[in-house]
Design brief:
It contains 3 helices and 7 strands. The chain has helices at 10-13, 67-90, 107-123; strands at 2-4, 125-129, 136-141, 148-156, 160-164, 179-189, 192-201. It has a 5-stranded antiparallel beta sheet. A two-stranded antiparallel sheet has the order 2-5. The longest helix is centred in the middle third of the chain and has 24 residues, at 67-90. The protein is globular.
């Protein structure tokens, strides 16, 4: 079952029921907090890495890998990785206003992460560590208005933990998916690819 970001407000279920969209499949936390956040980049943790873009889409039509279209496809994958990098910075700091997200995301993707940032601030949490990505370009439509790209990923958050913003004590929920399939839809505005939507599979791992 594919699901877009699901947000639970602190006032609705209390801090122990907070959900960070696209990270947690189940959220039954012990202790004081349950929301997820991206950690401050660390030199000791691996950066997000991309796999080689796939040669075909799910329907069998080729995804360009060379020439101008190939460059567009590579740019979309790079933008997706940049989005995770900036989230790691923004959601990893308790003093962040989230404005840097505007350089990489728009629409639902921006809104969902911004709301998650607010939830984390309210809960006194940050994310520590770093997620790992394995993006694969699945489709590219440069004739659309705006041009659109779709990226499939197996997101690994096993080294990405929510923690107390002051003490950095880990406050992960008791149950969560550590690896799950996800899909990002990107739109191109001018020369820039922006993540417009992000969905994840809530019933399986990868």
């Amino acid at each position: 079952m594919r699901q877009r970001s699901i947000l639970v407000r602190p006032g609705a279920v209390g801090i122990s029921g907070l959900l960070l969209p696209f990270l947690l499949a189940a959220c039954s936390a012990s202790g004081t907090g349950s929301a997820d956040r991206l950690g401050t980049p660390s030199a000791t943790l691996p950066r997000a890495t991309a796999t080689t873009p796939a040669a075909t889409t799910p329907t069998g039509s080729p995804v360009p890998r060379e020439g101008a279209q190939g460059l567009d496809g590579n740019s979309a994958v790079t933008a997706y990785q940049g989005w995770w990098d900036v989230q790691a910075d923004v959601l990893g700091r308790s003093d962040s206003d989230g404005l840097a997200l505007r350089q990489y995301a728009t629409g639902a993707a921006f809104t969902d992460t911004a709301i998650s940032l607010t939830q984390l601030h309210d809960a006194g949490l940050v994310m520590v560590g770093r997620p790992r990505t394995s993006p694969v370009l699945k489709s590219l439509d440069l004739q659309a208005n705006p041009p659109t790209a779709t990226i499939d990923d197996c997101l690994d958050v096993s080294d990405w933990h929510q923690a107390d913003a002051t003490t950095k004590e880990i406050k992960d929920p008791q149950q969560r998916l550590s690896r799950f399939p996800a899909t990002a839809v990107l739109k191109k505005y001018g020369n820039r690819w922006l993540i417009a939507d992000f969905t994840r599979e809530v019933t399986k791992t990868c």
